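step=predict obj=ABC transporter ATP-binding protein n=335
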Amino acid sequence: MTLSANPSRISMPEPGSAAGNGGEAGTPMIQVEQLSKIYGGGFQALKEVSLTIRRGEIFALLGPNGAGKTTLISVICGLVNATSGSVRVDGFDNVAHYREARERIGLVPQELTNEAFTTVWDTVSFSRGLFGKPKDPAHIENVLRALTLWDKRDNRLLELSGGMKRRVLIAKALSHNPQVLFLDEPTAGVDVELRREMWEVVRGLRDQGVTIILTTHYIEEAEEMADRIGVIRRGELVLVEEKAALMQQLGRKELTLHLAVPLEAVPAALSGHDLVLADEGHALVYTYDVSRQDEGTGIAGLLADLEATGIRVKDLHTRQSSLEEIFVNLVRESA
């Protein structure tokens, strides 16, 4: 992978450079099979997790604190040993062929662990050397330019803001030309403007074929960026779904009816509809499942009943539930 000075433009190496059984056409980038992890004290952090990550996608892994997100990433990256199950990276088993699997991975940890007195240039260059890669100043320069770090290349890390330190972690992860990039809470501590700039960098990587797996507490980050979303809770994958399909299947819509004359209560004649009085009686809110549209939303019947009761509506609008609401509902239902 070679980054250009334009963070939205990244060129990948020619295909066919992978050795062994990796890189074959149609091979998933990450293949996790029945993965479990039990720590020494008996705590089971992962419970028979199976997951396929496709090449070139952005996959967002959501879950509350302690759900197993970081443990799953650590096992895939070879930093933690699994109790049972297997992981393949670009076709390589991450135990039997550890070196081949690991060199394909770039990992951006959640914690800021940079060496305080090292310069940006030196720490990124050193990370490349850890993977046995030859020096490539042009690549390091392009990485730093892509992440808006070029002007900071001679600064010591202790002189940088939290957001810039986060960018340095990403630069280190990209220093050895990985094919898959893990981002564990990538924009934690980053202001909104820098966060959106970093989203553009990540999209640019994805557009050029890099597979991105991110964990995040920012629901809007997953909603904005991800192609697919996985929800993990108590070490189990609750759901893996295309983002659009998730919104379609699990989302709920609200129809808000603004009334010409306020009501004190929902009339008994409308008790058969899922209605809630809002805005001090000036609005009725009707909720329905998007996934049941083939059975009818019930809106036509609701409007007919409103007319029959003499309730006049002066305006109406609909609202799709957000990914955050869907996520909260999923976690609640799995409790």
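step=describe
Confidence is low (pLDDT under 50) at residues 1-21.
step=end
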